[in-house]
From TrEMBL:
MF (Gene Ontology): ATP binding
Gene3D superfamilies: P-loop containing nucleotide triphosphate hydrolases
UniProt-recorded name of the protein: ATP-binding protein
The keyword Hydrolase is assigned to this record: no
Length: 685
């Protein structure tokens, strides 16, 4: 190569170096640790670890520049070329020069040499020299378990850039203002994802605030961040980990029953998967690209995976302990983060920020103080009144760090109200009046009213409101035989208003004022849309696309009074042999029939009626009623006179048996409508 070409190569190299330096932003804390070690005030070995693309190589290049500026001899070794042979190790300057700095990059490529490095190579480095190791994997715990390395080794996890540094990086790439938010939403502070997305988005002249990564970006990031996977099962496990909020072995087993333990152990060792007390979770960018890739590559497989996770987590909401119920709701809602729900998904950074406690007698004074500061004396009076009537309905929320009480929430269950209760709280009175005027409570069906008192700094979009929201949804989904739920929201709390509307809660016209502020009451009839149907409505937009919402899917159930229900049963019995007439019965839209999912409603209604008649045969005291019903409706006697003749009974006796049998069937089916199909259909009295 001619001298002219060498000169051009050098110029290009300097230009590349300058571009790399201009793209380096942030990392002040990491540089401070390195400089402390560089000037003799810190460690001798610095171990940097983080997922692919997080900026380890860029950081090592900056370390090299800092060391060179300090007059220290620097050598950089790539994991590809590191050799554990005596001849190769003897040639390293760091073994012979107390001023030398050795930087080892891509250490994950030779991770098997970690023991040799720790036990044989590094102990020979003279004091004063500095070694930096950078790789994707955390160091072996034997480093930190060995007291000899205490004070000598510094472990430095490398994480995403801060928001300001991420914006500075986009500025260096010439990203226009309208592209910054969508790029940050996708890449967060991940340097490689930001640089790659910025390069593609800037070239796309039509990109704007609705920019999303194309499959070239997704595919490139998958190759760089995830790489080749051992098998299809490993890929599926990683996709589950990306879709769920937190992954436990139990959750993995629900979708991948075979080898769940082995796959969970593999997941927890991945460099881009972290762990906390709730389970495993991938780096945000890895999560995003895995989700985008699967939805594009295998939409049917994505739906199957989602539905299995949804069913598992919905069951967990129903079966979790009271303490764990809000967390179970949060995990379930996380599955719906892309279907138009306002930003209410869990944030790991906020875990444990607030503590939830049951109300104690000594907390009532605190409740009044918080309620007064939050909403005034009139509303505080309502809080004190209900705390004296239903103390078990209250939850107290404290800041974990300080123990400061910041909010109270009450879930008031009401089967009937006396005059004092109606006048004590306008919010509860408005809910009660609405229920009575719309579809009244039936026997054994309470309604519930949620009341909330939170100090002003913690209202609107805050981690506290998310925790309280999860508790309220848990109450709704775990309640037995609840008729109506009402959630009282002040007009100013728009974040709650958006969420509740998305969840299909309807506002009532009356706006009660327990003090100076008016409240909006969000109502839901859980008899018309039971918990399972509500969850299906929540799930439908994600599977079908973001359009619509919980109120846009599936028909509501009919909520009949006892008289209306009994009349519908009598009419259906008369039309038992006519499927077209049964299909028009309001009973086909009741909870009684809705629980027989997957069956034609008319067929299901006919089966329920026939079984209800047959059940009377098993009780000696009801056999006479069974015979009368069987002749009239199962065998279809043309007239009641002929039916009585077939049974050998006087007509008046037959009529008495038939009427009593119909009443038994009505009573049994009504009981099932209210309490579920596990209850016996008909009971003798």
């Amino acid at each position: 190569m001619s001298p002219g070409n060498d000169d051009k190569t050098g110029l290009l190299g300097r230009r590349l170096q300058a571009a790399q330096e201009s793209a380096f932003v942030g990392r002040e804390e990491e540089l401070a640790v390195f400089n402390a070690a560089l000037y003799g005030g810190g460690c001798s070995v610095l171990y940097v670890h983080g997922p692919g693309g997080i900026g380890k190589s860029a950081l090592l290049r900056r370390f090299a520049a800092e060391a060179a500026a300090a007059g220290r001899p620097v050598s950089m070794v790539d994991g590809h070329t590191l050799e554990p042979s005596p001849a190769a190790s003897e040639a390293e300057p760091v073994l012979h020069d107390a001023d030398a700095v050795l930087l080892i990059d891509d250490f994950e490529r030779v991770h098997g040499l970690e023991g040799w490095l720790r036990e044989r190579f590094l102990p020979r480095v003279p004091m004063g020299a500095l070694v930096v190791i950078a790789g994707r994997y955390r160091p072996d715990m034997r480093w930190q378990a060995d007291p000899g390395w205490a004070g000598v080794l510094e472990v430095l996890p490398l994480r995403d850039l801060r928001a300001g540094d991420a914006r500075a990086l986009m500025d260096s790439c010439g990203v226009p203002a309208e592209l910054r938010e969508p790029l940050l939403a996708f890449a967060g502070g991940h340097p490689l994802a930001l640089l790659l997305a910025a390069a593609v988005a800037v070239k796309d002249g039509g990109a704007g605030r609705r920019w999303t990564p194309d499959q070239d970006v997704v595919g490139t990031l998958l190759d760089q961040l995830v790489g080749e996977l051992p098998s299809a099962a490993h890929r599926h496990a990683l996709e589950i980990c990306a879709h769920a909020y937190m992954t436990t072995e139990d959750l993995l087993r629900a979708v991948l029953p075979q080898d769940a333990g082995t796959l969970f152990s593999w997941l927890r060792r991945l460099p881009f998967v972290e762990s906390c007390n709730l389970g495993l979770f991938p780096h945000d960018v890895v999560r995003e690209v895995l989700e985008a890739d699967l939805r594009w590559r295998d939409p049917e497989g994505y739906t199957v995976m989602h539905d299995r996770l949804h069913a598992h987590l919905a069951e967990r909401v129903r079966t979790a302990s009271d303490v764990d119920a809000p967390g179970a709701v949060a995990a379930l809602l996380y599955l719906h983060r892309d279907n138009g729900v306002p930003a209410d998904v869990p944030d790991r950074r906020d875990e444990g920020e607030f503590q939830e406690e049951l109300l104690r007698q000594e907390d009532i004074g605190t409740l009044v103080r918080v309620a007064t500061a939050a909403e005034g004396t009139a509303s505080a009076g309502c809080a004190a009144f209900w705390a004296s009537r239903q103390p078990e309905a209250f939850r107290l929320y404290r800041r974990a760090e300080t123990g400061e009480p910041v909010a109270f929430s009450a879930w008031l269950r009401l089967a009937e109200l006396d005059e004092q209760e109606l006048t004590a709280d306008p919010v509860v009175a408005a809910a009660w009046a609405h229920a009575r005027a719309t579809t009244p409570l039936r026997g054994g069906e309470p309604l519930a009213v949620n009341r909330l008192w939170a100090l002003p700094p913690y209202r609107e979009r805050s981690p506290l409101m998310e925790v309280i929201q999860w508790r309220v949804i848990a109450h709704c989904l775990r309640a037995e035989r609840m008729a109506w739920s009402y959630i009282a929201i002040r007009h100013s709390d728009q974040a709650w208003v958006e969420r509740l509307r998305h969840y299909g809660m309807l506002t009532i016209s009356e706006q009660p004022r327990p003090g100076e502020d008016a409240y909006t009451l969000f109502a839901h009839d859980w008899r018309a849309v039971p918990a399972q149907a509500w969850l299906e409505r929540m799930n439908q937009p994600l599977v079908a696309g973001p359009a619509g919402g919980p109120s846009a899917v599936t028909a509501e159930l009919a909520v009949l009074s006892r008289a209306e229900f009994a009349e519908a049963v009598r009419k259906a019995l008369r039309h038992l042999s006519r499927p077209d007439a049964l299909a028009a019965s309001p009973l086909t839209r009741t909870r009684l029939i809705a629980e027989r999912a997957g069956q034609d409603p008319a067929t299901a209604l006919g089966d329920v009626l026939r079984h209800a008649i047959d059940d009377l045969r098993d009780d000696a005291r009801s056999v006479k009623f069974y015979r009368a019903l069987s002749v009239a409706f199962l065998r279809g006697a043309p007239t009641q006179e002929l039916a009585a003749e077939q049974l050998g009974l006087p007509f008046t006796t037959y009529r008495r048996h038939l009427t009593a049998g119909i009443e038994r069937v009505c009573a049994g089916l009504w009981h099932r409508e209210l309490y579920g199909t596990s209850a016996p259909a008909c009971r003798s009295t």
